[in-house]
Amino acid sequence: MITKTVQIDENKIDESLIKEAGEIIKQGGLVAFPTETVYGLGGDALNPESSKKIYAAKGRPSDNPLIVHIYRLEDLDRIVKNVSEDAKKVMDAFWPGPLTLIFEKTDVVPKETTGGLDTVAVRFPIHPTAMAFIEAAGGFVAAPSANLSGRPSPTLAKYVCEDLNGRVDMIIDGGNIPIGLESTIVDMTSEVPMILRPGFVSKEMLEEVLGEVKVDPTILDANSTERPKAPGMRYRHYAPKADMAIVRGEDEKVSARINEMAKEHKECTVICVDEHVKDYPGLNIKNVGSAKDSNEIASNLYKILRECDDEGVEFILSESFSDKGIGAAVMNRLIKAAGHKIIDV
Ligand code: TXA
Ligand code: MG
């Protein structure tokens, strides 16, 4: 398959290119597109053959359900039922935006899209190009992140190309992605809404609207043997090729331990915050951003993990970062990338 790559500026959307992308989806093809969280790999959510193609292109197990993307609220009732008052409140507060909600599905949504489940994950993104594309595609676009299964989600079109060139019909290059981590997923079918994947919309933000919010216990406990409720959280996701460990503790102890461990590994790269770059003289450093700015860290993390792959890094030592707000999502992805290897000092 020849993949056509096009550039679309979100501030000046080229309608003819969007129409072309939409036609590809309507005819059962695949298009990678930008959203405010990460790039998505889109297909027609209501066409079972398209969903099968998405799994094949990604190399993803087909029991791992896809998120259905919509571009306007009126379309929700076609694909879900029993929308609770709580759900209406969160939709009101955070849609469109980086929040995915789980509902009971209607018969319109094929089981191929939901990995066999009776529920469906729905997201209403706020990225202008994503919205225009979903509309042109007929209104319901199933899209996982646009990476090969097991690799960090792409935040730049060049990473989408690296993974999916020859596997999709079109890639829409929308430049850099503002958030850089996947959407928050909240299950609205449980009695108390439950966070299945942390993201930009934090627990605190949800609590302000809903009062009580639970968190899937498997997210909090690295050693949990329970099955995560979002099937995708089971797999060793977000993984760089290098071996990776996180060093956690007081600043001075962390830098001392990292310096000591780095001596034992030739091809070692250190991921640290801007404020600590000076603490690692002579080492290969990836500056993830200021310790005071979790948004900056979120937007840099996957890019840095991919750069480590491109540079053939064999061993990564990372500092541990704040877990407040979107920091919870940063630490969730970082710990998964490290395969749960945390060294406490
Ligand atoms: O930000 C995002 O959410 C991006 C962009 C492209 O929108 N998409 C994304 O999709 O991250 P993906 O497929 O990489 O992750 C979807 C996650 C998986 O962990 C999957 O198991 C979970 O959502 N999921 C989907 N449907 C579900 C359902 N019905 N019940 C529980 N978990 C579900
Ligand atoms: Mg993904």
Total E-strand runs:
17
CATH class of the largest domain: Alpha Beta
Shape: globular
Poorly predicted regions are none
Specify the CATH architecture of the largest domain.
Alpha-Beta Complex
Q: Compute the separation of the termini in Å.
A: 51 Å
Number of domains in the coordinates?
2
- Ligands bound to this protein structure: threonylcarbamoyladenylate, magnesium ion
Task: Determine the number of helices (DSSP H or I, runs of at least 4 residues).
Answer: 11
Mean pLDDT: 94
Residues in helix, %:
25-40%
Query: What oligomeric state do these chains adopt?
Result: single chain
Radius of gyration: 20 Å
Structure classification: alpha/beta
Share in β-strands: 15-25%
Largest sheet: 12 strands, mixed
Here the CATH topology of the largest domain equals DHBP synthase
Could you give me the name of the CATH homologous superfamily of the largest domain?
DHBP synthase
What is the N-to-C succession of helices and strands?
Answer: EHEEHEHEHEEHEHEEEHEHEHEEHEHE
Q: Can I get a quick summary?
A:
The protein has helices spanning 15-26, 48-58, 76-79, 85-94, 128-136, 157-164, 203-210, 217-220, 251-264, 294-310, 327-337, and strands at 4-7, 31-33, 40-44, 67-69, 80-81, 99-105, 119-123, 141-142, 170-173, 184-187, 194-197, 214-215, 243-248, 268-272, 284-287, 315-319, 342-344.
Overview features:
345 residues, alpha/beta, DHBP synthase, Rossmann fold, twelve-stranded mixed beta sheet, 11 helices, globular, binds threonylcarbamoyladenylate, binds magnesium ion
